[in-house]
């Protein structure tokens, strides 16, 4: 019985030893693999080619002398690729830096590639607009008829600017605007069922405004020769002026009552447009007022100059204003593109 127990213990010890040997071979224990790797390293080192030359003393570079055993077993071509990857990793300026994925690169749309105006140019110009309205015995929706009205709007705005860099201009603008309108006669009729009809008294309106503003204009050329271009303009302006409103309080009398108003407006406007050189240094422009942000303050006074009321309003409105379509002429001084 003692003999059988000893045999059983011997079998268990042998089985454990075999299992431990297999586990060590699978995990690559350095203690067991160091000797074979060290034996292989001298033979493999002779096949490794590097870009650095070995000095005459016979001392190999430190990078070659410290080749790990796991790399020594790699074929010569594989070791060349491995050394190239390590050299690129050492020389890389972004080593150790984390990059966000996906990486995005800025797209250069080359808007400023085509030059329309050059740095150092000075422009002097004038924009103007004029519009009239007239109606003779006009009917509107069969409610108002016999309307006799007319009006005029005229605007003149001289300006001067400097191109602080290619296609970008900063300048100042002065302006004058005149408006007048007359309503001589109009009748309204809401129908027999409503029993409401009558006539609108005479009304006369007259306004004069002066303005001062600064603007920034960015051009974009449309052709390589720089003859045609588009521009986007932002303008911050302050305008002030007076208006006069006269109306007939009683249709049976010809007496007119008049009120005066002092107007002040601060406005940030967006005015895009197009430009074309009609002469080498003369450019014609067409701009459109698309609205913006504005603040308006109005103070009303009677005939004797007494204050009778005030009104303040602020709004943001972006839409095409037919009264703000301006034709202009610009002269470019000190043309840099000839140099």
CATH topology of the domain at 113-338: Lipocalin
Mean pLDDT: 75
Structure summary, number of beta strands: 12
**Assigned CATH class of the domain at 113-338:** Mainly Beta
Helical region count? 5
Largest sheet: 8 strands, antiparallel, barrel
Distance between the termini: 116 Å
Helix/strand class: alpha+beta
Order of helices and strands: HHHHHEEEEEEEEEEEE
- Named at the architecture level, the CATH assignment of the domain at 113-338 is Beta Barrel
Mass-distribution shape: elongated
Percentage of residues assigned to helices = 10-25%
Q: What Rg do the Cα atoms give?
A: 44 Å
The low-confidence runs, each spanning 5 or more residues with pLDDT under 50, are 29-66
Strand content: over 45%
Main β-sheet, spatial strand arrangement: 1-2-3-5-6-8-9-12
Biased composition (Low complexity): 60-70
Keywords: Signal
Signal peptide: 1-21
Region (Disordered): 46-70
Write out key terms for the chains shown:
alpha+beta; eight-stranded antiparallel beta barrel; elongated; Lipocalin; 49% strand; 339 residues
